[in-house]
Amino acid sequence: MEHLLRIMEVINKNNNVSQKKIAETTGLSIGKVNYLINDLILRGFVFSEKTGRYISYYITEDGIEFLKNGYESFKEKKINIHQQSFKDINTVVILAAGKRKDFNHPAGLLTVEGQPLLRRNLELLQKNGISKFIIVTGFQKETLLGELADFPDIEFVENPKYKWTGSMASLACVEEKITDDFLLFEEDILIEESAIHQLIMYPQRDCMLIASETGSGDEAFVEIKDGYLHKISKDIHQFNRVDGEMVGMTKLSFEVFSEMVKEFKENNQNPYMNYEYMLLDVARHYHIGFLKIHNLVWAEMDTKQQHEQVMKNVYPILKRKEAEYRENQIKLHLVDAMEVSIEDIQKVEPFGGMTNKNYKVTIKDDEYVLRLPGNGTEKMINRYEEKVNSTLASSLGIDTELIYFNEETGVKISKLIPNAETLNPTTAKREDHMRLTTSVLKKLHQSGAEMENQFDVFEKMVEYEQLLQEVNGKMYEPYEEVKAQVIALKREYEMMDIQLTPCHNDLVAENFVKSGDDKIYLIDWEYGGMNDPTFDLAAHALECDFSEEDEELFLRLYLDSEEIPVDIQKRMLMNKIFQDFLWSIWTCIKEAKGDDFGTYGIDRFNRARMNLKNPLLREHLKYVKE
After folding, report:
1. What is the pTM of this model?
2. Which of 337, 378, 381, 377 is CA-nearest to residue 361?
3. Which of 9, 174, 466, 604 qualifies as a cystine partner to 580, CB 3.0-4.6 A?
4. Which residues contact residue 513 at a Cβ distance below 8 angstroms, ignoring those fewer than 6 apart?
5. pLDDT (tens digit, 9 = 90+) per residue, 505-523?
6. InterPro entries, alphabetically (predicted)?
């Protein structure tokens, strides 16, 4: 039908046109044109007249009606641009180039409980699986770069003409950076976390988030037709009906984004065009969906007055709703893992954690610990290996009963230790506690069990260095000098006769949990693997800040000996240096991702430097320049 209409349209404009010219205009072959014109004549929609060598074509009254109905039919039809209905999203584009009259800085740097709004949004996006961040800058770009310099995986793209262009020009600036579907976010939006999650997971690949009308006075109204985006305007008089209000967050496919940029570059003559109206232009031909969230808590902050009102009226509601959302997310993990109903979950309480988030949960009067992995741990920890090692520890009676472990997500549920008393660096120095901790370590190291993986501290150093580069992190100085000394020490260490055994490899005091007076558990096996058992001993001595006397007692109890061999002393010192160096890199990675560990990392780095000067190691490092 489309080819027939195209031929009739050409004839309608010029009845003296030849079949050759029709073919050139429509892009069809001459043979195809001849066949279709004969079909139109047979249908009674077209007739021809011959004058000399020339033939003229005319459209009949029936043909005019056919052409009219065909136009109407095709005007309402849109193309489904995608064969695949859903794709994972890992990229966000944030438009932050514009200037607001009320502020001398980008609107995204307005504070929300002491932190910039933009940082809050970046952290929520990261928490929901976004790993690549592209921010379009313009006004006060240096200020923006300075505020977010420590956030990982950000690319800044400048719109140098931000003063004289609209948001579509800013969006077009990222054309070379986009290779897949992405989330489009405006910098001045405060929104609840659940909305981000819902939009990312919504099945339509092109989808605008809309909410109920706020009555703010600056709304961009939205009309939906046949289940798709139909109209956007701030002028309510243009609407037959108002279905919602544009929020400032949209999911875009690579294909639709490409169409928007192409239309903007080839046909647009208005530099002040905003992206939502260009999206509306594309929506004339392609299906653009929507997600409407009722009772959505959100606001934009374009003015000082808006900011004050939002922080006073909107943000307290948003905080309460987000707290409920987080608790519900936790409960959903439990429902899925334990096959219980939400009603069976009686209590959820935060339970500490440095790298991960732990919760004490009560289900049908039984108590458990739920572990949710921290941001970025999926690159640093092999969850399959952790699952195997946790199961091994439980079977040895060293760790509590493991109830559930999802090796893909890292979610873990274990039985809560009864009458639990977590050790700390001070209580770990007591002799009665040392007797418990060393007995558990001997049981582990002497079990004869085989863990599937090996914890190689030197491989970890290389791995962590690579991760540090990926997040644009920086090490402490003089890093290269210290690294050279560590590598020299490695050569000597690898020449020693060391028998690998199952090890925990992360012996902070808090990973030992007492149950009553005579039972202690060793928990959290994220870094478990075959290793030098002295690595565990050195780790515990470091993490608990043992004095020389503390360490001597600890080793005597472990070795069941009054004498501590010199080779053990050397291995202890070497492993302390290796660990301090390794975990200082780990800290720099975590801090580059937005965490704050105070002086923890630099303290460990400096302690490694100090221990490298120990006389016990002088002969091993004599050929390395100070």
Report:
1. 0.63
2. 337
3. 604
4. 417, 420, 421, 422, 423, 520, 521, 523
5. 999 999 999 998 889 999 9
6. CcrZ_PhaseVar_Mediator, Kinase-like_dom_sf, MobA-like_NTP_Trfase, Nucleotide-diphossugar_trans, WH-like_DNA-bd_sf, WH_DNA-bd_sf
